[in-house]
Amino acid sequence: MIRSLLFTVALMSATASVWAQTTVIVADAQERAIGGQREVLGNLLANESVAISATVSDVIARVAFDEGAQVKAGDVLIELEHAAEAAALRAAKATRTEARAALERLRTLKQRDLSAQSELDLAEARFLAADAAVDQAQAELADRIIRAPFPGVLGLREVSPGAYVSAGQTITTLHDLSSLKIEFLVPEDALGMLRPGQALNVRIPSLGGARFAVMPEVDAVALTPQSRSLRVRARLRQPDPQLRPGALAVVELHDADSAALSIPEAALIPHQGRQTVYVVEDGQVARREVSSGRRATGWVEIRSGLQAGEQVVVHGGDKLRPEASVKILGVFDGATPIADMIRHAGAAS
Fold it and tell me: Which residue numbers delimit the CusB-like beta-barrel domain (predicted)?
């Protein structure tokens, strides 16, 4: 009776041990050619962009543009009330004409020795003052005629005829969309991924992830003190008409391939703010903290915590705990997707 009971207990223990095993797929930590890859966020910018505003305060006499219109450099956009300035310009021109005539008469008289040099000097001074007054009157009139500073597309109109506008108040915006710029920040530890003459791929999420090649043109020289990053601008010379300034851009940075100890990214398990993996040893797993480095598609460099040849769990780790028993379903090498390995193993069983 006692022997039978002991046998039953032993059998139940062995059965429980088998049932307790978790089926996993593992991968070998080994040297692979891996290149660094980083994604940084950026923004699309117009080639040129400006908020159109007045330099003086006055009432709007005429709005000369339509929202969304294409304009040329110098096109009139807004006219402020300018009757007094126009009259002042006419008066200044008349005064200048009179001063010029007086100067010419005195020059003729001086050639005949019928006028003193002092009188001629005074006439020249009066003419120069009159000429300067014309320039000033023209500038004051020009301040009330607001023109497009460069060709581009106008934004929304923020004012109406008859409204009083203050100096510096935005009237509309103007954007040169002949080309677009992309501005992004490159972290200090990724500066090595920027190389002269290297084209970068940019992904635009708003266009369904469409990719464009851009060439960095200029950077800020100095890193930003807050984030220790470098501001970089690249140009998209033939932008898609659907692209708009302000849209989010994802810039892909790549480093040259080199041999490095690596494992599949799926093996990494966050644990208490650290990166860990489950290492399989003699049918059991042990949690191991690791330090990761460069990343490529589906793979990650391991800088510390693993040795070449050690096996890590890449599927089934969410069901594990340290020292759990496991059954290896297969070894992932990147050639066969994990889903196919699971399906084939299920069909075989």
Answer: 183-255
CA gap 258, 33 in Å, rounded: 5
Q: How many CA atoms lie within 13 A of 132 on its CB side?
A: 6
Note if the pTM is more than 0.85. no
Q: Cβ of 139: how many Cβ atoms within 10 Å?
A: 11
Which domains does the chain show, CATH number per domain?
22-35+258-347 (2.40.420.20), 38-48+179-254 (2.40.30.170), 56-167 (1.10.287.470)
Strand spans (E) along 168-227: 170-187, 200-204, 210-219
Contacts of 225 (CB under 8 A, 6+ apart): none
Find the radius of gyration of the CA atoms of the chain: 38
**Which residues pair with residue 119 across a beta bridge?**
none
Cα(164)–Cα(148) distance, rounded to whole angstroms? 20
Neighbours of 300 (CB within 10 A): 22
d(CA 127, CA 120): 11
